[in-house]
Amino acid sequence: QVHLVESGGGLVQAGGSLRLSCTDSGGRMYDMGWSRQALGKERETVARIDSTGFRKNYADSVKGRFTISRDNPKRTLYLQMNDLKPEDSATYYCYAKIGANYGWGQGIQVTVST
User: Fold this and answer.
1) Is residue 57 within a helix (H) or strand (E), and if so which, with residue range?
2) Buried b vs exposed e over 76-91: b needs ≥16 C-beta within 10 Å?
3) Burial of 12 (0-12, 13-18, 19+ CB in 10 A)
4) Cα 52–53–55 angle (5° rounding)?
5) What is the tens place of the pLDDT at every residue in 59-109?
6) What pLDDT digit, counting tens, does each position of 10-61 carry?
7) Cα(26)–Cα(4) distance, rounded to whole angstroms?
8) 83 CB contacts (<8 Å, ≥6 apart)?
9) What's the DSSP call for residue 15?
10) Which residues pair with 37 in a beta bridge?
11) What is the model's pLDDT at position 30?
């Protein structure tokens, strides 16, 4: 199993940047990703990365602005978010794909002001 803990969220002005981190205390490397959920909206997966870190993909809404990466020796997943927009405001969750199931972090708030 995994125990995922996010950090790095907060309040930023539009056009600014934040980097989210997610540490994993589990014993194996999994495909991982970041999803977000804004108030009143469905959860949206914004970025995925495979266990090796080579294969990545992004939602169209963040392509060119967000970068997902991982440091396996440190067991840490990152999401670099640049050129943030108010519509990026949401609770962000990291997840690990464990076979057919998912393990989730507790979520961290990102708020982008105008």
Assistant:
1) strand 56-58
2) bbbbebeebeeebbbb
3) middle
4) 100
5) 999 999 999 999 999 999 999 999 999 999 999 999 999 889 999 999 999
6) 999 999 999 999 999 876 789 999 999 999 999 999 999 999 999 999 999 9
7) 8
8) 15, 17, 65
9) T
10) 91
11) 92
